[in-house]
Specification:
The chain is mostly helical and about 220 residues long. It has a domain at about 1-115. Helix content is about 60%, strand content about 0%. It is built from twelve helices and no strands. About 35% of the residues are buried. Belongs to the Mo25 family.
Length: about 220
């Protein structure tokens, strides 16, 4: 590992001032990985509280600002988990981020899934990459994502229901596939009533359901 991305190199995590809350000459102290997740959680809660405005396409300046801030913060999470191209990610930073993201009784993952449909395409892609990475992260040799999904299996049902919405189907299919890397998630999907519907959705040419089908059969 060439160096720790956090906290000494935080400013380069996402390329556009990641880790700094203010611009100009006077910048605040970089957020810790846990604080980045907490900030994302606050932004997600605000957007979900204003989902009617999102659905109606009536976003005011405050909501638009929150959407932009959320996109930057998710990209910041991505930078912590994957590195910035010049420095490798820091194991301790990844651990802290993972612990906070899957923290009990807070449900950042649930907020992220529900809010996904309101995000722009680029941010949706960043979310899928962040979630994919988090599925592999270990905390004290534990796959906390697997433990989380076992306790919140209804989220897998939400992801499967996303196939009915063509605007988010491709991203939900990617998230579901990554979650199914865990045996507990794969078992739930295979035993779920919605499972048979997945093969019906494969008829749509808009996104690659075949890969998902193959992934399921390999479990």
């Amino acid at each position: 590992m060439s160096g720790c991305l956090w906290p000494c190199a935080t400013a380069g995590a996402s390329g556009d001032g990641a880790g700094n809350r203010k611009g100009g000459l006077f910048r605040s102290k970089p957020r810790t990985p846990a604080e980045v997740v907490q900030h994302v959680r606050e932004l997600l809660a605000y957007i979900l509280d204003n989902r009617e405005a999102c659905n109606a396409g009536k976003r005011d300046a405050k909501l638009e600002h929150r959407m932009v801030e959320l996109s930057k913060s998710i990209k910041e999470m991505k930078g912590i988990l994957y590195g910035n191209g010049e420095q490798d990610p820091c194991d301790e930073a990844c651990k802290q981020l993972t612990e906070e993201f899957f923290k009990k009784n807070i449900d950042t993952f649930r907020q992220t899934i529900i809010c996904l449909q309101y995000l722009d395409m680029e941010t949706q892609k960043d979310v899928t990459q962040v979630v994919a990475n988090l599925q592999r992260q270990k905390v004290d040799s534990r796959l906390v994502a697997s433990e989380y999904l076992e306790a919140n299996s209804d989220l897998l049902d939400i992801l499967m229901s996303g196939y009915e919405n063509m605007d988010i189907a491709i991203h939900y299919s990617t998230l579901l596939r990554d979650c199914m890397r865990h045996q507990v998630a794969a078992r739930h999907v295979l035993e779920c009533q919605r499972f048979r519907n997945l093969f019906e959705y494969m008829q749509f040419p808009d996104f690659n359901k075949l890969y998902l089908s193959i992934s399921i059969k390999k479990k």
